[in-house]
Amino acid sequence: DAKTTQPPSMDCAEGRAANLPCNHSTISGNEYVYWYRQIHSQGPQYIIHGLKNNETNEMASLIITEDRKSSTLILPHATLRDTAVYYCIVRVFRETSGSRLTFGEGTQLTVNP
Amino acid sequence: GAVVSQHPSRVICKSGTSVKIECRSLDFQATTMFWYRQFPKKSLMLMATSNEGSKATYEQGVEKDKFLINHASLTLSTLTVTSAHPEDSSFYICSAKDSQTQYTQYFGPGTRLTVL
Question: Which of A31, A36, A104, B48 is the most exposed place for a label (fewest CB within 10 A)?
Answer without folding.
Answer: A104
